[in-house]
Amino acid sequence: MPQDEQQQKPQQTPPFQTAKGVHDILPNDHEYHTFIKKVVRHRCRQAGFRRITTPIFEYTDVFKRSIGDTSDIVSKEMYTFEDRKGRSLTLRPEGTAGVVRSYIQHGMNSWPQPVELYYIDPFFRYDRPQKGRYRQFWQFGLEIIGESDPALDAQIIYIANRILDDLGIADIFTLQLNSIGSSEDRTEYMQALKDFYFGKERSLCADCRSRLEKNPLRLLDCKEEDCKILAQLAPKLVDYLSKESLEYHDELKEYLEEMGIEYTENPTLVRGLDYYTKTVFEFWDKTDGAQNAIGGGGRYDGLIELMGGKPTPACGFAAGIERIIANMKRQKIRVPQKDDLHVFVAQLGKEAKKMCLPLINDLRENGIKTMGALGKGAIKAQLRLADKFKVPYTVIIGITEVREGTAIIRDMSVGTQKTVKFEDVVEEIIDLIGDENRDMYSPGEAIY
Fold first, then answer.
1. pLDDT digit string (tens) for 250-262?
2. Could you give the CA distance from residue 337 to residue 63 in angstroms, rounded to a whole number?
3. Cis omega (within 30 of 0) on the bond before 114?
4. How many H helices and E strands in the chain?
5. Which domains does the chain have, with CATH numbers?
6. What is the pLDDT of residues 134-160, one digit of tens each?
7. Rg (CA), the chain
8. What pLDDT sits at residue 446?
9. Higher per-residue confidence, 368 vs 74
10. Burial bucket for residue 75 (CB in 10 Å: 0-12, 13-18, 19+)
11. pLDDT category, 442, cuts 50, 70, 90?
């Protein structure tokens, strides 16, 4: 080919890829998502929780005020942008702040208290992508707002544990439990931390050197090895807790023991958000520890007042769905498969296609999951396609069947077939599939 023709040949556009840190949820993983959502809804409804969905973005101050300027989320990880009027907006990095904003805005303090809410939503953080951590990720969460009682903390821990148990992964996690007391308790303690770390700054990572000035409590949460060693040697928060905080924590442990929930006291557990008070807890991997924590929560009694509402106690829990799925796969847990097809309808010719279209619709309306090959392929090609979809039965309508008003039903597992009247096809298939396997839907049922 002449060189000038080679230069004129258009270059092929490279295919697009997902942005770094995000991923497609393909059909096989959606089976896990669907199952997890079903389990979460079931357990939450049992306990009287109602579902809430807050906007995917909020005014940036909603998160700055609630999570705290010194937190890693606000200082490093938020997706923040300005709208056309110059207002600062942020994609939600976590769920509690939006729920609290909604509680205040819609006057939920006038509802029967406590208000119990749950959510299943996507969230966004500009974080370094790694195993189980993405820049767009899904979480489910529970919030109990309007009452301060360690029995409520125990109940939310129980529900979280039951969900993990239903999903088959509770046994590979331990419940880590701590009390960080009230804000007054922590004031003296943070000064003690500063005194302890004085002169040891060079042993801290860059993040912890910054935290030492802004929020010393976060020094206990660092995953760097040198910082973890120092955290173990640092003064213990429990020695600075008030009598009220200690009694609250002891009562919580009594309730957990009464419900048979095992826990590990962890004096360095503080969580990564500034709004927590008293109870904090996380579910840690028994092998990987905090590196593979699946979720956590705690009490946040001062947050609603901080956000502009009346003083209102509350507690909550959230867990990462992608991490749950990864651990379910690790445990080789298979979820119920409801997307398998029951029937493949093969046809040959325009008149056969005319008969197939209403038949396919009738089968589907009767709870039979049906696919129709409505192209122009030969019957043999369509049957090979039916094999690939692993359907148990195929309905075949060709020129002879159109003329005689019949259809062939083939059992794909053994290769046998029989001819039936066309008007009897639906009933024959229903008998073969069985009522217990049909996928029926009533428009009167709630869909989520």
1. 999 999 999 999 9
2. 39
3. yes
4. 16, 16
5. 27-182+242-330 (3.30.930.10), 343-437 (3.40.50.800)
6. 899 999 999 999 999 999 999 999 999
7. 29
8. 47
9. 368
10. middle
11. low
SS (H, E, C) the chain: CCHHHHHHCCCCCCCCCCCCCCCCCCHHHHHHHHHHHHHHHHHHHHCCCEECCCCCEEEHHHHHHHHCCCCHHHHHHCCEEECCCCCEEEECCCCHHHHHHHHHHCCHHHCCCCEEEEEEEEEECCCCCECCECCEEEEEEEEEECCCCHHHHHHHHHHHHHHHHHCCCHHHEEEEEEECCCHHHHHHHHHHHHHHHCCCHHHCCHHHHHHHHHCHHHHHHCCCHHHHHHHHHCCCHHHHCCHHHHHHHHHHHHHHHHCCCCCEECCCCCCCCCCCEEEEEEEEECCCEHHHCCEEEEECCCHHHHCCCCCCCEEEEEEEHHHHHHHHHHCCCCCCCCCCCCEEEEECCHHHHHHHHHHHHHHHHCCCCEEEECCCCCHHHHHHHHHHCCCCEEEEECHHHHHHCEEEEEECCCCCEEEEEHHHHHHHHHHHHCHHHCCCCCCCCCCC
For the chain, what's the residue count? Answer: 448
CA 179 – CA 237 distance, rounded (Å): 8
Q: Which residue matches tokens 């000035």? A: 213
